Amino acid sequence: MKKLAKVVLGLLVLLLLASALFLFWPLHQRSVPAAGNDKPVDVVLVGGGIMSITLATFLQELQPDWNIQVYERLDGVALESSDGWNNAGTGHSAFAELNYTPELPDGSIETKRAVGIAEQFEISRQFWSHQIREGRLSQPSDFINPTPHMSFVWGDENIAYLHKRQQALVKNPLFYGMQYSEDPAQITQWAPLLMEGRDPKQKVAATWMPLGTDVNFGVITRQLTAGLERSPNFTLHLNHEVRALRQNDDKSWNVTVKDLKSDNETTVKSRFVFIGAGGAALKLLQLSGIPESKNYAGFPVGGQFLAFQDPAIANRHSVKAYGMAETGSPPMSVPHLDARKLDGKPVVLFGPFALYSTKFLKHGSWFDLYSSVNHNNVAGMMDVGLENLDLVKYLMGQARLNDDDRQAELVKYFPHAKREDWKLVTAGQRVQIIKKDPEKGSILQFGTEIVTDQDHTLAALLGASPGASTSPPIMLDLLKKAFPEQMAAGWETRLKQIVPSYGRKLNDSPALTNEIRRLTSETLKLPYLDVPVETSPAVMLTPPPAAKPAEAKRNANEELQAL
User: How far apart are CA 441 and CA 459, in angstroms?
Assistant: First the structure.
């Protein structure tokens, strides 16, 4: 017995040592090359996606004399979540996403978050319009196209909710023009694929918003990058992976980078570092060692879509139709049948189907999740896992889906779809935030979050949707957090030229909504509707004219979509 006890005790000691090594080793700092530049560059941006390139574009306009360096581990920009095939391409303006407008216990509809997201997308439209006028973006149809946004439901309870939602939203200037119908003939006119072959006895309802858009964020990223490279103060380093971040005594940062082609490591000193590396941002934030990094962990979730590329199908669906997550399903499961324009051709995507992976990037490592776990976040991750067993159950169920199961989900939205019409495509990888909340403990949070250090020398962007759609307003928030002195010293004045509504809310004023939307619609060649100057509910509920072409759980923000 004594010998057995010693063996058991020895195994426990080894297990504890292995656990300690596993939890503390990710934060171990290895030796790295010394910085090769005595004078620090102004900005290092990690990652060549829509976020980093949007920030670089802002900075180049605000401070053209700054030296900006971008490091991207792949052989081109926008190859992860920014790529057109790796996301749904929705210009997230809350026109169709039902999870942005939850029904409250008293039966009313919460519209605050939807209005906020719509405001953010209007900033994106202004930013892209400005870049067209400056010659950094080409013709609008290359990256943004008019695509009405629809919400589509069935069943008495869901129909009643959708009608209340439309009635609540159209009282806001930003949502003027949203139409509601329970008439099968009208819905067929809006989206024939949704209705053809459907049981005529099934009660359905839909809203239709003519001002919706489809956006190719990959094209935007690549074109903005080409514009940045026209400046001698900007350098893009492809096939370069950031391996270490060390802060110096003068608050500058040493950024150690590995050239993946030559296998050489070098270090560059920078005054400011932005980590915009998508799912990889969490691990890099942890490598920085800033105290704020201890508050976060990540939960990776991938997505798959069914792609229809036959013109006979793609040319008959010109809307983005969002449904409602089924009872018991998490927000990330909201189905949508999306009209897209990819590689210059119309495409229809249906999904998402969740894909569990331990990778933090589509082109990442299977060890990404494990290497992000340490003694600061392991307890919180386990706690959140126990509190979100429905999400775990959902992902396990999704992992067991086969093509017949996917086809069964598809025909709920596309009754005439045939199995041979589609192919399964894997989209980009997302990493949801697990963060420490002072009141609730660790929570799973959907959406995006900017993390900055107290010295304003490093910032990271964590999280996912609405993400790319709102990259310009997210980067404006980052500028305010990371560069408060420069903002007060003149940047804000310049930003009002780039984003004319800067500092104002469009939804507070029909006149301002009309002014800004008229400006961006003309530049982006998008439909436009004049909002009545009178803002009473009676006026806002009046059917609008046709659009003119442009001349309990610890689960924060549960209603947001993760994919």
Answer: 23
